[in-house]
């Protein structure tokens, strides 16, 4: 999620908001979060932490290791960077209370490459995701919405492939599908400039409220991603989103 690198150059004053009109989803069962790259989880980090704290079994599945995105590090794109970012994902998972998993043999930035071709990265994603889903049998799947957050091609493709598979399942075997939603408008200039998409509040009825301990966990998860963000940015990601977007709860729209 490299677009976060300049989002919070200045501090955003933390504040709370009353969302009494929205539904609040209590954590239970098994949650599978499916994302494109390590650090994508930061957009919903306090919701992950809150769910794990309440007893849910939470796994975060990444399509790629992020091996093409050196961020602020001195790494060149490639295997060494991928190993470093895998380690950062494990660090973040530990902070949030989530199990971390990766799909195999899918390079960062390739999911949109000839997706209908036999053996394409998209086809490999679909095959592996199907196997993970059968084994995990989650109650809820969370993935990027069709906007990909800020239009990232890998994010959009992960959303499409996950949704395509889940919509093929019968009602008795299909988990709930949720997309993260930024509902607080207008977005601060730092977010708006990065192209982050807004969702109308009426389309985002599901909310995961979080406590201070969950926000602290989100901050610790952000600190793990040292290849992607400088120290000042890592320190501001969680409080910045808390003050500008989450405001006490992470909102979701229903995918299916």
From TrEMBL:
<dbReference type="Pfam" id="PF02585">
    <property type="entry name" value="PIG-L"/>
</dbReference>
<dbReference type="GO" id="GO:0016811">
    <property type="term" value="F:hydrolase activity, acting on carbon-nitrogen (but not peptide) bonds, in linear amides"/>
</dbReference>
<dbReference type="InterPro" id="IPR003737">
    <property type="entry name" value="GlcNAc_PI_deacetylase-related"/>
</dbReference>
<dbReference type="InterPro" id="IPR024078">
    <property type="entry name" value="LmbE-like_dom_sf"/>
</dbReference>
<protein>
    <recommendedName>
        <fullName>PIG-L family deacetylase</fullName>
    </recommendedName>
</protein>
């Amino acid at each position: 999620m490299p677009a976060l690198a300049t989002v919070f150059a200045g501090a955003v004053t933390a504040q709370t908001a009353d969302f009494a009109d929205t539904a609040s989803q209590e954590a239970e069962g098994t949650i599978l979060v499916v994302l494109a790259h390590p650090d994508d989880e930061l957009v919903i980090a306090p919701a992950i932490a809150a769910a794990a704290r309440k007893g849910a079994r939470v796994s975060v599945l990444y399509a790629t290791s992020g091996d093409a995105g050196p961020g602020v590090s001195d790494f060149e794109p490639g295997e060494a960077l991928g190993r470093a970012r895998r380690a950062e994902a494990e660090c973040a998972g530990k902070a949030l209370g989530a199990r971390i998993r990766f799909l195999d043999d899918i390079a960062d930035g390739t999911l949109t490459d000839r997706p209908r071709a036999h053996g394409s990265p998209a086809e490999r994603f679909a095959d592996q995701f199907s196997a993970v889903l059968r084994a995990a049998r989650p109650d809820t799947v969370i993935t990027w919405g069709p906007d990909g957050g800020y239009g990232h091609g890998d994010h959009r493709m992960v959303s499409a492939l996950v949704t395509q598979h889940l919509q093929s399942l019968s009602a008795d075997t299909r988990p709930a599908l949720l997309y993260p939603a930024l509902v607080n408008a207008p977005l601060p200039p730092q977010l708006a400039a990065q192209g982050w998409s807004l969702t109308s509040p009426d389309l985002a009825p599901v909310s995961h409220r979080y406590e201070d301990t969950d926000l602290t966990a989100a901050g610790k998860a952000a600190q793990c991603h040292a290849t992607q963000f400088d120290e000042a940015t890592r320190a501001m990601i969680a409080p910045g989103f808390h003050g500008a977007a989450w405001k006490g709860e992470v909102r979701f729209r229903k995918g299916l």
